[in-house]
Specification:
single chain, about 400 residues, alpha/beta, Rossmann fold, formyl-coa transferase, domain 3, 2 domains, six-stranded parallel β-sheet, three-stranded antiparallel β-sheet, 15 helices
């Protein structure tokens, strides 16, 4: 990895959300990803976890995913990646004692973020109206599967289901002609929804800063991911009547892929007319420079499948390093293709200290991915290791007791 020296945890928050308290009733990936973004940016995030679970372990289910560390089996690898900078309190909110603790925490909070089904929150007395009665200025952000106004409201939602429903599982079929729908091998539904949730929290906090008003915010996965997919793939169906197909034609193209070189693969992206003309020269295809099909951006878009075929036949004649040097000299965008195994030694990632090594007091050495956002005045930082299950329960109980006694 890029960092072989242990990093030291920061002593205090320096990000733009320093002083904002978020009560986090999220789990798995969707909500946890959202709240970690804000935690990195300085928010004080208290993760509320339940003592019971479907298999009896308790807490966020991502604690117990495979590839566990035997020193700390409650710190599964995905949990570690998306739950740093948070405190964990183990509370059974169905009991009067712990419900009272939750009420006191809500009084001190700016935000309640939840991905618990809303009917479950209502049973706990933690629906928006119930929480608003405790803290009238609270920003209440509910991450759901489907919008409350639709017929699927309240249905369970997981990444696979959202990929299926949103059109995401149709994308690969439009590239290779195989009619079988397929899932992308990444939690795109959870992570995209998490980004929407983090934006929603920020926007609602901005409104609160201007007006003093809290509000209820819903972030449904299905609608979030569908809007994400259709940003480019609505394509010709933007118009009525349609002017073209569903799916952006440049992307729904079987020839769009990394191109083979003499010794590996190359990510190559001539985009403008100028890029293509310079590539044609480098590839000894000067006769194509004046080809009438490739004189305009529209012409390039209309003939992109053929152009990608030209790339495929050309790149095999030089090594990846030779192509990178030649293309860089002419300003044609290109990069070597990284396998996952290559990322720890990528020069760019090493230069920006992307992988950071920490020493957890129980789990031992682990790598954390630093926040990719850079703030000149209020930088994100890492202050807390991913928490053990209930690690901060006593600390939070003591805070609540002190608050009540004040």
């Amino acid at each position: 990895m890029s960092s072989e020296v242990f990093k030291t945890l920061a002593s205090e928050a320096t990000g733009p959300f320093k002083g904002v308290r978020i009560i986090d009733m999220t789990g798995v990936v969707f909500g946890a990803y959202a709240t970690q973004i804000l935690a990195d940016l300085g928010a004080d995030v208290i993760k509320i976890e339940s003592p019971g679970g479907p298999r009896g372990e308790g807490g966020d289910v991502m604690r117990w995913t495979p590839a566990q560390n035997p020193k700390a089996p409650d710190l599964g690898p995905i949990f570690v990646t998306i739950n740093r900078n948070k405190k964990s309190a183990l509370l059974d909110i169905s009991t009067p004692e712990h419900k009272e603790v939750m009420v006191e925490l809500l009084k001190s909070a700016d935000v309640l973020a939840s991905t618990v089904r809303y009917e479950g929150m209502t049973r706990l007395g933690l629906d928006y109206e119930g929480v608003k009665a405790i803290n009238p200025e609270i920003v209440y952000v509910h991450g759901s599967g489907y919008g409350a106004a639709g017929p699927r409201a309240g249905e369970p939602a997981y990444d696979d289901l959202i990929q299926a429903a949103s059109g995401c599982a149709d994308l690969l079929s439009r590239v290779d002609g195989n009619p079988e729908p397929r899932y992308l091998p990444t939690l795109v539904g959870d992570k995209v929804s998490g980004l929407f949730m983090s934006q929603a929290i920020m926007a609602a906090l901005f409104h609160k800063q201007k007006t003093g008003e809290g509000q209820f915010v819903e972030v449904p996965m299905f609608e979030s991911v569908t809007s994400f997919i259709l940003a480019e793939h609505m394509f010709g169906h933007v118009y009525d009547p349609p002017t073209g197909q569903w799916a952006y034609s440049r992307l729904a193209n079987p020839a769009r892929r990394p191109f083979r070189t003499k010794d590996g693969f190359l990510g190559l992206m001539p985009y403008s007319v100028g890029h293509w003309r310079r590539f044609f020269k480098l590839a000894d295809l000067a006769e194509l420079i004046e080809d009438e099909r490739f004189q305009t951006q529209t012409g390039i878009a209309q003939n992109i499948r053929e152009l990608y075929g030209i790339l495929e036949k050309s790149t095999i004649h030089k090594t990846t390093e030779e192509w990178i040097a030649a293309l860089a000299s002419k300003g044609v965008p290109a990069v070597p293709v990284n396998r996952l195994d290559d990322l720890p030694t990528d020069k760019q990632l090493a230069a920006v200290d992307f992988f950071q090594k920490y020493d957890h007091p129980v789990a031992g050495a682990y790598y954390s991915i630093r926040s990719p956002m850079l703030f000149s005045k209020t930088p994100a930082n890492i202050r807390l290791h991913p928490p053990r299950l209930g690690e901060h329960t006593e600390e939070i109980m003591a805070e609540v007791k002190a608050r009540k006694g004040a």
